[in-house]
Structures are given as C-alpha cells and as structure tokens.
C-alpha cells in the first residue's frame, strides 16, 4: 500500500488473495479490540513478529519497532497515572499498551505484504462500490505523495543549510512550520495534475472493471480465513470466561 512499507516477495502471506488479507486484518483487529488479558496480548505480539519473519519484512519492523515501543511505554505510563478501576493498575496498563502495539504491528504487517492495487481489488471483490474503493485507494496515494513531497522539501532545505531535523523539539516545530506552505501548494498542484490525467484517460465512476479473473480463492486463503475466525472465537471464549487464563 505504501512505497515506504510494501516489499515485493513470494512469501505465503504475499501470495494470499487480497480478500483473505483484508478479512484476516479485520478479524485480528476485532480480536485485539475484544481481548483484554496480557497473556493474550503477549501471544499476539509473538505471533505477529513471527509473521514478519515469515513475510521477510523485518526491515519494516526494525524501522518502526523503536517508535512502536516508545508509544507502548508512553501508553503504559499514562494508564498507570490515570486508571482508576477494579483491576490492578499495572495489569490493566500492561494489557492496554500491549494491545496498542499489537494493533500497530498488525497494520504494519498488512502494509508490508499488500500493495495498493491488491487492496483496491480486494475491496471491490468484497462488494464495495467501485467509486468508494477508488476514493479509498486515491486517499492512500495522496498520503504517499504528500509524504514524498515533504521528504523532498526537507532534503532541499538541508542542502541550503537549514536542517530542520536537528535541535530541540520546539526548534524543530518552528523549523517545520514554514515548510507547510510549499507542501500544501505542491499537494494542490499534484491534485490538479491528477484530475487532468483522469479526464484524459476517460475515467468515470460509472466505469465497469473486471478483476475477478486475476484473483482466485485457493486452499491457503480458506485456511488463513478459517484461522482468523478461530482466533477470534478463542478470544471471545476467553473474554467471556469460558476459557480461564492466569491473572
């Protein structure tokens, strides 16, 4: 989906049908949102890291891992300070921070093994109207454009001796503010160019496209979807006390 995270590969996760990937992401998000036990969250983190290794996307994990760990630590500290409930603060804060990190890792893994084209095709094949799917994909493309443009502007400023990535946090904020104007102007220019490109190619929301011939649900896809459903069912059993875990 993002040129900064997606890595081409032939791993079992890369070869999954887009519909299977989207369904797995939805079931994982649902399971993590329902689960509230630190043991479940820890197991989820271990499984997700193993899946990164299986997909050969450890580069993305190494790039974002320190940031996710910092977010988890901050989340833990905030829950420790402000949580006032029946559970021990450390127990609840640990579960919440682990949940947040697991959600971030699940999203990053999806970005690492799913291209933007696959994501759009999956949405269409799952019944989402083509104009809506196109709008979603276009929003991701525009995010990529803005990030790439911002990176180019920052690098150009470094060449001119204005390194906004150094100094204290307030100094960095003050340095980034003037860069917003060229970033916004470049974004408007690229959006106008995109409109002209779509018109020149005869794009219309009413166009019908056939992508079903390119994708087929195979046995591996069915197994992956079934595994996601089973994980969600197991989390529900733990959540409602059918399966007891140690505190």
Radius of gyration (Å): 22 Å
State the share of residues found in helices, binned by percent. over 70%
Head-to-tail CA distance between termini? 39 Å
Query: How many individual domains?
Result: 2
**With helices defined by DSSP (H or I, 4 residues minimum), what is the helix count?**
9
Structure characterization notes:
This protein is mainly α. It has two domains: 18-114 and 217-239, no CATH class; 129-213, no CATH class. It contains nine helices and no strands. It has helices spanning 18-34, 38-54, 58-82, 89-113, 116-125, 130-159, 169-176, 180-200, 219-239. The longest helix is centred in the middle third of the chain and has 30 residues, at 130-159. The two termini are 39 Å apart. The mean pLDDT is 81.
Brief summary:
The chain has 247 residues and is mainly α. It has two domains: 120 residues, no CATH class; 85 residues, no CATH class. The protein is built from nine helices and no strands.
């Amino acid at each position: 989906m993002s040129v900064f995270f997606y890595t081409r590969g032939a791993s079992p996760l890369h070869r999954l049908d887009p519909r299977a990937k989207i369904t797995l992401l939805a079931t994982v998000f649902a399971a993590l949102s329902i689960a509230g036990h630190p043991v479940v969250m820890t197991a989820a983190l271990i499984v997700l890291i193993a899946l990164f290794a299986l997909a050969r996307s450890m580069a993305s994990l190494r790039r974002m891992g320190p940031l996710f760990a910092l977010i988890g630590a901050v989340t833990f500290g905030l829950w420790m300070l402000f949580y006032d409930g029946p559970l021990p603060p450390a127990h609840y804060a640990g579960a919440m921070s682990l949940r947040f990190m697991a959600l971030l890792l699940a999203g990053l893994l999806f970005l690492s093994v799913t291209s933007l084209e696959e994501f759009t095709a999956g949405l269409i094949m799952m019944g989402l109207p083509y104009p809506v799917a196109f709008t979603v994909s276009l929003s991701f493309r525009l995010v990529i454009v803005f990030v790439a443009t911002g990176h180019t502007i920052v690098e150009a400023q470094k060449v001119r001796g204005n390194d906004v990535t150094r100094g204290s946090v307030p100094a960095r904020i003050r340095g980034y503010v003037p860069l917003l104007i060229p970033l916004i102007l470049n974004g408007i220019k690229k959006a106008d160019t995109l409109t002209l490109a779509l018109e020149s190619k005869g794009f219309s929301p009413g166009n019908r496209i056939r992508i079903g011939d390119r994708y087929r649900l195979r046995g591996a896809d069915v197994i992956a979807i079934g595994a996601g459903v089973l994980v969600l069912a197991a989390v529900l059993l733990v959540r409602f006390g059918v399966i007891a875990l140690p505190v």
